[in-house]
Every structure is written in structure tokens, then in C-alpha cells.
Amino acid sequence: MPTATPYISNVFDDYGFTLQMDQDITYASANLLVTGWTELEASNDQGLMVFEYNGANIVMFWEPENGNSPQTVVDSTYELQKLSQPNVTFTPISEGDLAVDGQAGRFGGYVTQNVSGGNAGGGLIGAWACEQTGTSISLTATGSDATALQIRFDRLTSGFECGI
Question: Cα(76)–Cα(73) distance, rounded to whole angstroms?
Fold first, then answer.
């Protein structure tokens, strides 16, 4: 069962990586939940974290790289998003290269609508691998405000550091 993690600063430094948000928000106020991704409990090898970040919903998971390219991880994350919301139409709108803490990665963007054409929103997915730890990272920001999504996604990817 996932439990709230009492991170009282804007820096998450655990499980072999560091993730920094804006100074005016803490992980405790962002409703951070951390759980296992492929196991019950999060570890340096795998985990899942979800939180709210100034207008964006964030989902990040990490797992062993296992030879998957960042593009494969972006594609898989996009498919997971689609499968988890069968009443929503997903339309890809952008993709490209991404660099996070000196590591090469990929990103993809999409817009969403419910089946009646309302509730427009979207998301950005980024993926990269931390070579030092052999960990693959997937970060998704979703919400209804495209500007907020872009800003939060950029802040999180620029505030991410791979561990050693």
C-alpha cells in the first residue's frame, strides 16, 4: 500500500537520484506518493512516484535499463497512458531529443480529449537512462494547461541528477 513520503523540501534525494522542484513548493505539499513499480516497495532498482506540481500531475517511474532505448520507454509509457484511459482520445503532437543530466533521452508530447470532444488536456513524456546506475527513467507531466506542463516538465528534467 503506497504511503505519503514526508519530504519537507523541494529536493527529492533518494533511490539513487535527485529530483528538484521550484523553491516555493515541497514534496510534502505536492502530495508525493512513492511505491514500488515492479515490486511492492520502491528501491534503487525500481519505483514509482506521483505528485502534483503547480498545475501539472507528475508520474515518474524508474526500472533497470534492460537494453530499452529512451524511445522505447517513451513509446511504452504513451501506450500505458492510452490503455489506462480507454474513454480518452490521444493524439501525438511532438517528439524529439532530450538531454537530462548529460544523458541522452527522448520526449513525446500529446493532446487528449474525452469521447465527447471535451476536457482537452495533454501531456509530455520524457525518458532517459542513468548510465552510472543502469536505471531507466520515465517522467510524465499531464494536465489541461500546456504552458504549465511545459514549464514543470522543463524544471523537473533540468533539476534531475543521476546518482552514482
Answer: 5
CA distance 4 to 8: 11
Residue 108 near residue 93, CB atoms below 8 Å: no
pLDDT in tens, 14-66: 999 999 998 888 888 888 999 999 999 999 999 999 999 998 999 999 999 98
Mean pLDDT of 105-123: 89
Q: Are 2 and 33 in contact (CB under 8 A)?
A: yes
Strand runs labelled E in 5-151 = 11-14, 17-20, 33-35, 47-53, 56-64, 88-100, 103-114, 121-130, 135-143
Cα 77 to Cα 107: distance, rounded to the nearest angstrom? 11
The continuous run of DSSP H or E covering 1 comes out as: none
Q: Which residue has the cell 504549465?
A: 148
Question: How do residues 64-84 score in pLDDT, each as one tens digit?
Answer: 998 999 999 999 999 999 999
Residue with cell 505536492: 30
